[in-house]
Amino acid sequence: MKTLRYLRDAAVFAPCYVVLDWASYIDPVGPFNITPWNPQAALAIVWIMLVGLAHVPVVLVTIILADTLVRGTPGGFAITATTAVVLVGGYAGIAWALKSRLADVDLRTTQQLTLFIAIVAAGAGVVGAAFAGMLSVAGLLGETAFSEAWTRFWIGDAIGILVTAPLLFAAADRARRTALLALCRRPEAILQAIVLVATVWLIFQGFPGVGSDPSRLFYLLFLPLIWIAVRFGLNGAILTTAIVQMGVVLGIHGGQQMSLPVVELQALLVALTLTGLFLGVMVDQRQRAEDGLRQTLRLAAAGEMAGAIAHEINQPLTAVTNYGRSAQMLLERDRAGPPQVQDIIRKILAETERAAEVVRRLRDFFRTGTTRLEVVGIDELMAAVGRITDSVRLGRDIALEIDRPPSLPKLFVDRLQIEVVLRNLIANAVESIVASGRQGGRILVRVQPHDAGHVRIVVADNGPGIPAAIRATMFEPFVSGRPTGMGLGLAVSRTIAQAHGGSLEAAAVAHGEFHLVLPCAQST
């Protein structure tokens, strides 16, 4: 099965690489793959990052195949094979550096983008020096100086990776791919694309006497780029730069002769690409900050509401406690009633006092952010999970399974607040199973190490899972998938988890599954 998957992936990658190599083989240095734009380098790097270093041999064979089909192995097979080894080694190195330094390749911050650009620029420079140096030593560069060949290869690879890699990363991620497709269907985006294509055509073909020197009007491309990036962030920016690059390639493939030196054209493309990427990332950052502020304001309103509710609930709880104690005193004084009644009253008082304590803790948390941290063992917490499940499932055919390794560190948490979080997750799981009508419901609570200072608690069920319509907003206050839900449970639960220095996330799986990360006692 693994072999078939390996061959299938290779069968997809190889023709795509060859086509990109052929399409971008314009204005080369001699008969070699030193061109103004090399998108196939980005494809190789992204593919290695996604499928792993085990597929490096496929990349090596594909590079040799592309050189044979597109350029006819200039310099002989030995040179083709040797330069292919240089390229695949460099691309694998860039892929390793990106994967180790950037855990999230979504380029969500300017710091991530800067690191991405630095790794790509440095890696492309090293690969270009090795590639051009090998050709120079073999005497195959002719009259072209090593420095010129190296510079053109360096910038060509860097531009190809900077433009194409973000687009490939977005296409490989389901959520971002969906966002890109939705963007392409928006009327405003279609209008922007028409304006952009028209601008590219005017710059390279439309104005008499300008087509041979596009630098005279190249600055016009910044106008639609800024418009698109401001409206649609990084997704819009990567689509814009890709369209511009394709316009340049089509113009040259169509026989357009340019008096502009290749290095100057590359410099203009670098400026356009970097401007678009940074502007897109900053727009996305600002949008996330605005969304975070709105969520904070809504959560503050939810906190005020929860505090008011807690205050109102506290009074009847106090009354129930007083009535229970009075009944207990009367029974003990008159020695009346069966022992079971006294036992029931004791349980009522215990649960009422516990409920009152939970209410007080939540009220204090929402008013001042107070948490009463204590060392809590996993066994103690799992015992609470059992009690919570029994009280929530109410005799329904829903099994609870607890999976935990024998030796796990104790937690440093507010026990009552974490029990509130677990109760919410388990109640959601029960409601999901019941709503689906599934027989033989099952809830799995799995405890496992997360990192050196945290433990992960997974709460999963065999229900239908989280509706796609609310997956992106389910942790926002007042968002609920149930008609009768208030939409506060998950928002409050995540706030409690984050106040502990942990997190609460929903797993992107077919069934319901939440991951709660909490700090260990020894990490404090």
List the helices and strands and how they pair.
Layout: H1 2-23, H2 39-51, H3 56-71, H4 77-101, H5 110-137, H6 146-172, H7 174-184, H8 187-206, H9 222-253, H10 262-334, H11 339-368, E1 374-376, H12 378-393, E2 398-403, E3 411-413, H13 415-436, E4 441-451, E5 454-461, H14 489-499, E6 503-506, E7 513-519
Parallel strand pairs: 2-4
Antiparallel strand pairs: 1-3, 4-5, 5-7, 6-7
Helix pairs in contact: 1-2, 1-3, 2-4, 2-6, 3-4, 4-5, 5-6, 6-9, 6-10, 8-9, 9-10, 10-11, 12-13, 13-14
List keywords for this structure.
single chain, 524 residues, alpha+beta, five-stranded mixed sheet, 66% helix, 8% strand
Notes on the protein architecture:
Helix 12 packs parallel to helix 13. The strands form 2 sheets. A 5-stranded mixed β-sheet has the order 2-4-5-7-6, with helices on one face. The protein has a two-stranded antiparallel sheet with strand order 1-3. A hairpin with a 6-residue loop joins strand 6 and strand 7 (513-519). With 524 residues, it is of the alpha+beta class. The chain has helices at 2-23, 39-51, 56-71, 77-101, 110-137, 146-172, 174-184, 187-206, 222-253, 262-334, 339-368, 378-393, 415-436, 489-499, and strands at residues 374-376, 398-403, 411-413, 441-451, 454-461, 503-506, 513-519. It starts with a helix and ends in a 5-residue tail after the last strand. The mean pLDDT is 81.
